[in-house]
Amino acid sequence: MIQKIYSDLTTFKNLDFKSGLNILLAEKSPGATDKQTRNRAGKTSLIEVIDFLMGAECSASSTLKSESLINSKFFMDLIIKDKNFIIERHGSESKKLNVLIKEGSKEEKKSFSTKEWRTLLGNIFFKLNELGNVGVPKKYRPTFRALFPYFVRRERDGGFL
Fold first, then answer.
1. Is the dihedral of CA 100, 74, 97, 153 positive or negative?
2. 114, 57 Cβ separation under 8 angstroms
3. Strand pairing partners for 107?
4. What does the angle CA 98 – CA 5 – CA 106 come to, to the nearest 5 degrees?
5. 37 or 4, which is more confident
6. Given CA atoms 35, 48, 18, 88 in this order, what sign does their dihedral have?
7. Are 145 and 53 contacting, i.e. CB atoms less than 8 angstroms apart?
8. Could you tell me the pLDDT band of residue 155, with boundaries at 50, 70 and 90?
């Protein structure tokens, strides 16, 4: 479960999540027309940041590589199977992530390439490492990044249509 998403960027709206369903809504301002329903609350940006922290590729045209954001760090505090993962990533070094893993009183800080991170997440969420034991040829095995968009859909990929 995502606990928190935050940034060192002072204009970023940090989000704390509670147990259960969390909804980020746009409010319609008084006097707005039917076409003016968005309030720039950061809904699309939030999805982009979650996707980024979960190992998405970060192309040169990515918003997170823009001049105003490239050096900003983004973080996600995530609990998976009684382990707390604090994930850190920024656009200037987008091919790696720093992760603090807390389990009970133990803490371990690790650096992952995006490929290593996606492999770890695939094993944790979907047990993809077990597929190697059932004779599925590697080119037909699902990957974390192929499965994850069923849970987080980016607007640029048609996720809100």
1. positive
2. yes
3. 102
4. 50
5. 4
6. negative
7. no
8. low
* Per-residue confidence band for 140, with pLDDT thresholds at 50, 70 and 90: confident
Tally Cβ neighbours within 10 Å of residue 2: 15
pLDDT tens-digit profile of 38-53?
666 677 788 889 989 9
Most distant pair of Cα atoms in the chain: their distance? 61
Locate tokens 């037909």: which residue? 140
Note the pLDDT of residue 13: 85
Beta-bridge mates of residue 79: 84
Dihedral sign, Cα of residue 115, residue 116, residue 117, residue 120: positive
Total residue length of the chain:
161
Structure confidence at residue 154 (pLDDT): 59
Cβ neighbour number for residue 157 with a 10 Å cutoff: 11
> Is 76 in contact with 86 (CB distance < 8 Å)?
yes
Residue 26 DSSP symbol: P
